[in-house]
Each structure stands twice: as C-alpha cells, then as structure tokens.
Write a structure and sequence with these properties.
Number of domains: 1
Number of strands: 10
CATH superfamily: Aldolase class I
Strand order of the largest sheet: 8-6-5-4-3-2-9-10
CATH architecture: Alpha-Beta Barrel
CATH topology: TIM Barrel
Distance between the termini: 22 Å
Structural class: alpha/beta
Radius of gyration: 19 Å
Number of helices: 12
Helix content: 25-40%
Largest sheet: 8 strands, mixed
Order of helices and strands: EHEHEHEHEHHEEHEHHEEHHH
Strand content: 5-15%
CATH class: Alpha Beta
Length: 337
C-alpha cells in the first residue's frame, strides 16, 4: 500500500484557529444533503472510528425522532441525498423506514456499511434489500491488504469484507449502473511523527481495482480517500502517544485554500439519533451543534416548525477542520480536488 508520508518537523506547536486561517467566514449554501447518524451500536469497534461505535453501545434512533426525520424528507424537496451512517446503520432502528421514505420521494440514498454486518444474525437480508431499493453502498475497506485492514478493524474483518463484496457483485453492484458500490480508504494511524495524507485518489483507486480484480474478481465503482480526523478514537489514539498537537500542526501545514468551496459541511445537515442538528458528522461527535444567527441550537423539530432547512448562516469550525482541508481535501465523498 503506497502512502504519501511527511515528517512533521515544525518546532512551533501552536495551532492557528481555523477561522483565522480563512479569508472570510465559512458560510452555508442551500442544503441538499441530509446525513443521519442512526446511533452508535455496531458489530465492530474499529481503532480509527470517530464515532467510537461498538457492540457495547446502545444509543440509537427513537420512533419519535424517526417520524420527524421522515416528515423532514417528505416536506423538503430540496433534499437530494439522504446519507445513512452509524454505528452500523443497517442494524439500527429506523434504517428501513427512512430508506423507503427517501426512495418514495426520489432521493438518492447512501448507506455507509462496514460490510461484515451481512454475516451477523438477522441481517443476511441486507444485501438483497439494498439492491432492491438501489441504495448506493459506501463501504469501509481502509486498505486492499489483509494485515492492514485487520489491524484497524479487527481480526477476520478483511476476509468477511471480501466475501461481502463478492456477494454484492453477484447482485450486480459495481457493474449495474443503478447499483453503485464505492470503497473508502483511510491512512493507517501513525506510530510516530511520520504523518500521512491519503495518496492520490485516482492512482490509488487503480491500485485497488487491479488488486481486488486479480485476487478476488471484485468490481467496484469509486474509491474515496478520507483523512483520519483527530476526533473520537483517532484523537484518543494520538493523545495516548502524545502526537495529537503535532498531528494537528501537520494538518494545518498542509492546508489547501482551494478545498474550501467544496467542503461537505457547506450544503449538508448532520442529524444525530436524538434529533439534534450539526454542520457535519465531526462536529456532531465533538458536540458542536449548529446554531442560527441568534445562537439558537437547532433540532429537527425546529427545522420543521420554521418550514426551512436554511436557518444556518455561518458554519462552526474547530482545529480538526484542518483534516478536511489538508492536501487534496477530505469529505464523506472522498478527495475534494
């Protein structure tokens, strides 16, 4: 696995506040993406998980919030994409009702899958369900090599992921234009100040496709390269090794202003399992809620009452935003430029 590695050599450990790095405040544009975190329960506990999901977590969507989210989907035709995440979204309350509401309203639905969920009791119907409803699957496979994947995600995860991808291929995923299958790459977590940004997305996609086709006959559509933001377990990992501030400084040193126009937070609302609204999934995990011009915290109920999704003017930022703006940029849709 080829990686772009840079040694952090700065003696200045101070981090420039992200809002001061920008020439102007970071503004929302019209909302077109609704990303919903259905909860934190998952069958895996990956070392880099910014949600800190695991089988021990119990948080998930309630019937009341599920109903409000479905009402939101019906009420606002400007929503083009409903993006479902977790935890393992497929195992959480509200997954199928929200999928079916979104599809009934002509939305593209993304499900962010760990793939191994298909082999858990009661979830063997999920691949066929996804194909039936033409869901776009964005699946975590942080490397095409077994050792690297199992180190990040747990023993046996690579083998299960390969079998899951082959299963999806048999259903037409990665080949039928209506059945999109994308994979997600994350760099390995650092053991020293030799920090890495993701390699060139196009070149790495070619490497993935060549390896997976030659060894397993697997086809997929796109590879999405995503930077490890210092949030959740990645932040805890870095703090234990006294690398947290150095990593932030590394990300800042690779700040690329041309990524700003393409940041996912600009046209997205991130909703948690309690119905609270955030600018992005990372702000959600750091408990940095979205607010109106008057500083009022937003919820799904308040959006419904106001009759608009476009109540936010300025996006709330933090130091970890450098992760989305470093190098070629990073988002839930991969590299930005």
């Amino acid at each position: 696995m080829i990686q772009h590695t840079v040694v952090s050599s700065s003696l200045d450990s101070s981090i420039t506040p992200f809002h001061k790095k920008l020439n102007s405040s970071l503004k929302k544009v019209s909302i077109s993406v609704l990303q919903i975190n259905l909860g934190k329960r998952c069958n895996l506990a990956c070392t880099h998980c910014h949600v800190e999901a695991s089988p021990k977590r119990t948080e998930e969507l309630s019937p009341e919030i599920c109903d409000r989210l479905i009402e939101l989907i019906y009420k606002f035709p400007q929503i083009q994409i409903v993006d479902l995440t977790g935890g393992a979204p497929e195992m959480l309350y509200g997954f199928k009702p929200i999928v079916e509401a979104a599809k009934a309203n002509g939305k593209q639905v993304i499900v962010r899958s760990n793939l191994t969920i298909y082999f858990e009791p009661e979830f063997g119907d999920i691949p066929d369900y996804c194909a039936q409803h033409q869901l776009r699957i964005v699946a975590s496979l942080p490397c095409y090599l077994e050792d690297n994947v199992d180190k990040m995600r747990g023993a046996g995860v690579y083998d299960a992921s390969i079998r899951a991808l082959q299963w999806l291929n048999r259903l037409g995923y990665g080949q039928d234009p209506n059945l999109i299958l994308d994979l997600v790459y994350n760099p390995s977590l650092p053991n020293s100040e030799k920090f890495s940004l993701a390699p060139n997305q196009v070149n790495l996609e070619n490497d993935y496709k060549k390896f997976l086709q030659e060894h397993f006959g697997i086809h997929f559509n796109h590879l999405l390269t995503i930077t490890n933001l210092p949030v959740g377990r990645t932040k805890l990992y870095l703090e234990r090794r006294k690398l947290y501030r150095d990593y932030l400084k590394f990300l800042e040193s690779n700040f690329n202003e041309s990524t700003i126009a393409h940041l996912m937070c600009r046209n997205e609302l991130s909703i948690d399992y309690l119905g609270n609204v955030y600018d992005c999934d990372f702000n959600q995990m750091e408990n940095l809620p979205a607010t109106t011009r008057d500083g009022e915290k937003l919820t799904v109920a308040k959006l419904l009452a106001a009759g608009t999704l476009d109540l936010i003017e300025e996006i709330r930022t933090a130091s970890y935003c450098y992760g989305c703006t470093a190098g070629c940029g990073s988002s839930c849709g991969g590299a930005l430029i």
